[in-house]
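User: Run a structure prediction on this.
Assistant: Running it now.
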Amino acid sequence: MCGIVGAISQAPVNQLIYDALLLLQHRGQDAAGIVTMLGTKCFMHKARGMVRDVFRTRNMRGLPGQIGLGQVRYPTAGNAYSEEEAQPFYVNAPYGIVLVHNGNLTNAQALKAELFEVDRRHINTESDTEVLINVLAHELEMVARDLPLTPEQIFKAVGAVHRRIKGSYAVVALIAGHGLLAFRDPYGIRPLCYGQSADGRDTMVASESVALEGTGHPLVRDIAPGEAIFIDEAGRIHTRQCAEHPTLNPCIFEFVYLARPDSVLDGISVYHARLNLGETLAQRVISTLPPSEIDVVIPIPESSRPSAMQLAHRLGKPYREGFVKNRYVGRTFIMPGQAVRKKSVRQKLNAIGMEFKGRNVLLVDDSIVRGTTSQEIVQMAREAGARKVYLASAAPPVRFPNVYGIDMPTKEELVAHGRSVEEIRAFIGADALIYQDVDAMKRVVGALNPRIASFEASCFDGHYITGDVSAEDFALLQAQRRLQFEEEDGHNRSRLALQGTEQA
């Protein structure tokens, strides 16, 4: 999961892209990067860290030009600790191409070999984004060998890219001396939309509508599955459907957790979707637990709030904020040892004792993945004086790994894999555990846009929409996760040792 943005403007775009990345920071906190273009020269700055830490005044001064793109990264493939794998990526031929990508290519390893053996292109990192940019570069080279590059040829190249790569991808690319290109996978799994300034002279493409509206570019529409949009240097917009059989299957986890509630994705308000999830979750609670047994409904910050409010309203119970979240703590990395992981939860959340003491509380979370955080939060509620602690999840059990760009653990790490709801409840330590129903989730979110016939919901239902995911892919995913864990474990041990040395 990442956040991407591209813009072409009548004024310098460095500050504009920076502001958009701040609005997309929730989509990735591990690294950030911006590229701008002046004439045919590219200017790049990228590094690990949050947007506000990566870009200083001196960096912004070094990013001139009226066209550019940026990305915030949450790694799902490759080495999380390598700055080389931070985006954007650049290739110098043909023309000079810079690219950012949100998603995950399921055939990246096969493509990497094909690029080397057939296309004579070398891939130097483990990032599937480097694979993607080289496929695009090769196809552009094929369609415009001895001809001027036109929008028609660009769209032909994107069509060839669609035929070669598998998985999920939303892409923004700069082609030096020509303009800005954006396209979306034929299944429409990862989100991508564009907006324009009031005078129509500036255009921005981004992962979520909040980045457009927050920078003065009201949403025009979502980019359709398989569609490409090319904005030339004069600001003219060209569009074309480049896939043969596109279908819209947006990732439902965007609505459950990933996207900001003030965004609209594929015609669906994320906030409204979460209200609907709370409404149908309330029905599950009523059928499982007498409402008279519940004194108060408390959300686990932050994505669960709309669902918890609607659930409390439906049950006729008080809604209270029982946890305060420390907004200045980044995401919880996989840390060595359970004690360190538990400590990180305590640093992020603190209970307000008066909301728990002597009460039967219903905690509402957006989803439950590993279960270790839920276990710790239930214990915090008990320590704060709760008489009974019930837990409701606005999402169904997460039983299957995700291969489309969400940093989901392998199935062995998922608390719901191979366990019944009762076994999960016992593991977490709650007095009752209520999950959302898969079909109900799809129905109430889909009701907000009847054009959407299906969702990508593989982590809940085990159906992989692209139809090309094999047992070998899961084995590779598990091996990558094991390697990533070892790298993060080593990184955190080194960091803790360094801290101990500094303190000494």
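Residues 45 and 210 are 24 Å apart (CA to CA).
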